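User: structure tokens for this one?
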Amino acid sequence: MKQARTAVFLSFALAIAAGPALAEKADKGKPMNVEADALRYDDLKQASVFTGRVVITKGTIVIRGARVDVRQDPEGYQYGVVTAEPGKLAFYRQKREGVDEFIEGEGETIEYDGKADRVKFIKQAELRRLRGGTVSDEMVGSLITYDNSNDVFTVDGGPASPAAGGRIRAVLSPRAGASAPASAASQPAQPGVRLRPSTTLEGARK
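Assistant:
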């Protein structure tokens, strides 16, 4: 999952079918705790730059990267840009409210917008939903935007890449207890269709 696999201009929006369970609402009001090797703080601009093995926690939010630029607007909202070390990916994780689920993702750069309650994963972007510690849904793209306020994901493909094979990847698992529509249940069972495996599929996990 650490290599670029997005190559075509392709975008889609996926609304999580999980009822009213949104991102942990209390996180917005929690203090931001930071560990880093160094800090440069500008009181006039209300801006901080943390460098060196940065780890940020804010409620259930966990952020890791080589550098994190944080600023706060006059209303008290916080904004952050997380940059990974060369050859590595920055990390973001947050619990979803009311359920045993987490959203976590990676990218060369991660942008956090506290006012819009939105996270962007930029370049080699990956996003996963974990249910009970098990990966349920997984997406890979050039740019992934996670809107915490309504649990909507937008995944965009990027410029062509030989390693990508011109593909954007998504694996979506059905929720437990999902039932088929009544009309489908009334139909007699049909024999399964056997699919021939492709011998030319590119962009497979390595």
